[in-house]
Amino acid sequence: MPGRSGSSLPRHLLLDQDPDLDADLPPTPSAACAGLPVGAVFATRYAQALPALLACGRCALRTECVTAVDPANSWFDGVSGGRLWRNGRPIADSPTVPAAPAAPAA
Ligand code: SF4
Question: Which atom number of ligand 1 is nearest to the Cα of residue 65?
């Protein structure tokens, strides 16, 4: 089962934790959950996950996050793509946070 570090983490989350990890790659948009306590992102209960779930609502990387985490195959516990997952399955009583509408062009 994947832990809190290693291949189950999306690349952008790894870069947020360690900017020197892959400095040669072009910059990517930041994960909206960057800077939140690890316990919020890797929560197993809705109350603890709420800050991360709210961040997902304004995150530009939702699709990439779920693709990278691959919850079902990684047996993921935590927040990814606006959902709370436990053992790779979305928690049934956890509402999915909708993506915020895109900002209007300036
Ligand atoms: S979708 Fe949610 S968990 Fe994934 S990077 Fe964005 S804010 Fe973090």
Answer: 4
What phi, psi does 83 have (nearest 5°)? Answer: -130, 155
Query: Cα(24) to centroid of ligand 1, in Å?
Result: 23
CA angle 27/33/35 to nearest 5° reads 85
Dump pLDDT digits (tens) for 7-28. Answer: 445 554 554 555 555 555 555 5
Atom 5 of ligand 1, nearest CA residue: 31
Global pTM reads: 0.71
Domain boundaries, the chain: 11-90
Q: How far is the CA of 10 from the centre of ligand 1 (A)?
A: 9
Are β-strands 78-80 and 89-90 bridged in parallel, bridged antiparallel, or unpaired?
unpaired
